[in-house]
Design a protein that fits this description.
- The chain is of the alpha+beta class.
- It has 2 domains: 3-234, Cytochrome Bc1 Complex, Chain A, domain 1 (2-Layer Sandwich); 256-435, Metalloenzyme, LuxS/M16 peptidase-like (Cytochrome Bc1 Complex, Chain A, domain 1), CATH 3.30.830.
- It is built from 15 helices and 13 strands.
- Strands 1-2-3-4-8-5-7-6 form an 8-stranded mixed beta sheet.
- The chain is globular and about 60 Å long.
- The relative contact order is 0.15.
Length: 439
């Protein structure tokens, strides 16, 4: 049961919700904190260990924010924000992080630029100052820029004959032609070479704003102290980010593309329209996908492809909900001479699911699994909880989502999953293959 109270302190109004999400005796209080400067965050106070974990995201500042012809800018920046900042050069900055036991990393998805930070309480002041510098005053010196760029370029070249990477690239350009989602997040060797220090600084300056900032914090810190740290770290950011408008994209279906590669196996990827996170039928689709191929060893695709026929080591499906599109995908890799058989089986299972939906037993087991696995996958450590708090805000799920999630899953009926299975899986999928000619 949710217990809701309101409290006022130096950090402003906070909404506190007590949520039981794991073992019967386990509970966590999520507080909605607003700093004196107006920066908001979700906080879970936890004094079990003398640690503070912070996850944050700049919504909309992911790889879609790369300028045309400068693909890879955001990804390159993720590797540079801890390579020197302010007056501290790269090596000294890294040594300082190690000396203080600070964990600091950045990442960029299609839609968001994210950061992950953890420090011991005893080093809080120095650690948060390093975080502030990395966000507000990265040096972007010539040596680390060249070094990180070279590392990424090496990875790009190495992936040129990787079947999985080739399939992913073909999948993106076929499913999202001409859209920012079609572009490789890491860029290409040519686009990376064109990225200048000014491009990196422009990406940061335009993408990092208070209005698109989302923060989740877990650890030994109270709301008042957190409010002060939020203002210190993020207070100097622009009030608003300056992001280009990204259009909505409907996944292209009914297409086939075969990429020829002289390897023993054929990699296969499917794509159909998915369902956005805010859709009322999201959990019905989530459960359908779990039964189809998202449930690992128990899923229909795994059973049909691996267990019954031994065609592949595995087969799976997934739901991907982006800010501007949504996709239901499936994939496997099999012997070249078994590729068409595997494609036919996946098509048949999609059609069967579209026509019949899951069974009562499959639905019950799927509900039990996705409810039970949530705590293990999302609430098992301070950083995972902080990341979950960020995800809750990015998707605008509400402070009581962890409790509400279980109720929403329980509320899904057989009629719901049959209806949504028909909606999603009756479409002719796009199919991508990478393997020997004729496979």
């Amino acid at each position: 049961m949710n217990m809701i109270s309101r409290c006022t302190g130096a950090a402003g109004m906070a909404l506190t919700v007590s949520l039981s999400f794991a073992a019967p005796a386990a509970a966590v209080e999520i507080q909605e904190v607003t700093s004196p400067g107006g920066i908001r965050a979700l906080l879970v106070e936890d004094y079990t260990n003398p640690l503070i974990a912070v996850n944050f995201a700049f919504k909309g500042a992911g790889t879609t924010a790369d300028a045309p012809g400068k693909e890879g800018t955001g990804n390159l920046l993720t590797g540079l924000l801890d390579e020197g900042a302010g007056e501290i050069e790269s090596l000294a900055f890294q040594e300082k992080l190690d000396e203080l036991g600070v964990s600091l990393s950045y990442d960029a998805s299609y839609d968001n630029f994210t950061g992950s930070f953890r420090t011991l309480v005893e080093n809080e002041a120095e650690a948060f100052e390093l975080l502030r510098l990395s966000i507000n005053a990265p040096r972007l010196d010539e040596e680390p820029v060249a070094r990180i760029r070279a590392q990424i370029e090496t990875g790009i070249v190495a992936s040129e004959n990787d079947p999985g990477e080739l399939a992913s690239k073909a999948w993106r350009r076929t499913v999202f032609p001409g859209h920012p989602y079609s572009r490789p997040s890491e860029g290409t060797v040519d686009t990376l070479k064109s990225v200048t220090r000014e491009d990196l600084e422009s990406f940061r300056a335009k993408g990092f704003g208070k209005d698109n900032l989302v923060v989740g914090v877990v650890g030994a810190i109270d709301a008042e102290a957190l409010g002060a740290e939020l203002d210190a770290v993020f207070g100097a950011l622009p009030a608003e980010a300056d992001l280009a408008v990204v259009p909505e994209a409907s996944p292209v279906t009914g297409k086939t593309e075969a990429v020829t590669l002289d390897v023993p196996q054929t990699t296969i990827q499917f794509a159909l329209p998915g369902i956005k996170r805010e859709d009322d039928d999201f959990f019905a689709a989530y459960l359908v996908n779990h039964v189809l191929g998202g449930g690992s060893f128990s899923s229909r695709l795994y059973q049909e492809i691996r267990e019954k026929r031994g065609l592949a080591y595995g087969a799976n499906s997934f739901l991907a909900s982006y800010d501007h599109s949504a996709v239901l995908g499936a994939s496997t890799a099999t012997r070249a001479d078994k590729a068409q058989e595997s494609i036919d089986i996946i098509r048949a299972e999609m059609k069967r699911m579209a026509n019949e939906g899951p069974t009562e037993d499959e639905l019950a087991k799927a509900k039990a699994y996705v409810k039970g696995a949530y705590a293990i996958q999302n609430l098992s450590s301070s950083l995972s909880i902080a990341s979950t708090l960020v995800g809750i805000q990015l998707d605008d799920l509400g402070i009581d989502y962890i409790d509400e999630r279980q109720r929403l899953i329980d509320a899904v009926t057989m009629d719901d999953v049959r209806r949504i299975a028909g909606r999603l899986l009756s479409v002719d999928p796009t199919v991508i293959t990478v393997g020997p000619a004729g496979s």
